[in-house]
Amino acid sequence: MTLSGLTAYVEEQKMPLIGKAVAGGDSAKLFRLQTGLKPGSKAAINLLDTTIVLADGNACGFTAAGSDEFTQRLIEVGAIKINKEYCDKELRKYWTGYEVTTAATRGEGALPFEEYFLGEVQKQIIAANEKGIWQGDTDSLNANLNKFDGLIKIAAEASGSTGVIIPSASAATVYDAVVEVVKSIPVAVLAEAKIVLGADDFTALALELTAKNLFHYTGELNETMEFKFPGTMLTVKAVKGLNGTNRIFAADFANNVVLGTDLENDSEVFKLYFSEDADAYRLKVEYGLGVQIARPAEVVAYKWK
What is the C-alpha separation between 298 and 190, in angstroms, rounded? Predict the structure, then answer.
């Protein structure tokens, strides 16, 4: 491994590092990305509901018909930062198996295993964001979950007669729960909808389908963690952010769930530098993230046990 200049590496990799950390998780890839949103800000998701009336083309004249309703949903982007500190002298004691270089003036050199460290930090940010997307709650005492509201809370607050659909039936197994979700998906989005659940429930579902002889397990499932639910054209996919929640969501995620962040301006920071005062390397990451459901009435949310 070649350890190049610290500043050059981070500056060259800033946008790819931020982009993957913020929008690189399995759930984030399902959603519609809305960029240009500053950390700590609120922005409107503008919606148009339009209807048309087919008039008699054999008649003269012009009579306007149909309706156009403009509405908005607000997406709030939480301001997030990560601060870490590394002492390269201590690190050298434990990483002697790797090539290590420390310049005479460390600010001009590289933190040992710089690329490895940044990669590992990025993985942890992706994992934290993945969980926050679903389980985030600004009222939580958990520092990793209280920066923005996640989809579980948003769905609960948007439920009701014209909001998120919550099946009332009590399912005994995850298979029964998914069937209830399938039956509850609005016909208007059935062709585009996907079903997501935690990897734990996904595995239980695969085993249950195998026992029912409704599902043929293949090695491909290990990599994709998704399959078509028997008897339908609906994709069922595992997302880690729902692990341990026993919750199942169904929606046209690509159009109806919005992931808000910046990625266009200079509000994001991904910087690794040597601090003379601290006599150590410091990592500073700053970004904004938030989610919102554009049309709640087209989303199914189910807690099955």
Answer: 10
CB 293 within 8 A of CB 299: yes
SS3 call for 283:
strand
pTM: 0.85
In order of 22, 26, 69, 253, the CA distances from 29 in angstroms are: 10, 5, 29, 9
* Residue 278, CA atoms < 13 Å, CB-side half-sphere: 13
C-alpha–C-alpha distance, residues 204 and 225, integer Å: 12
Q: What one-character-per-residue DSSP string does 21-49 give?
A: HHH-STTGGGSEEE--PPTT-EEEEEEEE
Angle (deg, nearest 10), helices 6-23 and 114-135: 20
The Cα 175–Cα 200 span in angstroms is 13
Report residue 281 CA to chain centroid gap.
30
Q: pLDDT tens track of the chain, all 305 residues?
A: 333 344 445 555 667 778 888 888 889 999 999 999 999 888 888 877 888 889 888 889 898 888 887 778 999 999 999 998 888 777 666 655 554 454 444 444 455 567 777 888 899 999 999 999 999 999 999 999 999 999 999 999 998 777 899 998 788 999 999 999 999 999 999 999 999 999 999 999 988 988 887 655 555 566 788 999 988 999 999 999 999 999 999 999 999 999 999 888 778 888 888 888 888 888 899 999 999 999 999 999 999 98
Closest by alpha carbon to 293, among 245, 252, 248? 252
* Whether 167 contacts 184, CB under 8 Å: yes
- By 3-state DSSP, what share of the chain in percent is helix, strand and coil, each rounded to 5? 35, 25, 40
Written as one letter, the residue type at 122 is: Q
CA-nearest of 75, 19, 129 to 260 is 75
Residue 206 identity (one-letter amino acid): A
Nearest-angstrom CA–CA distance, 290 and 129: 10
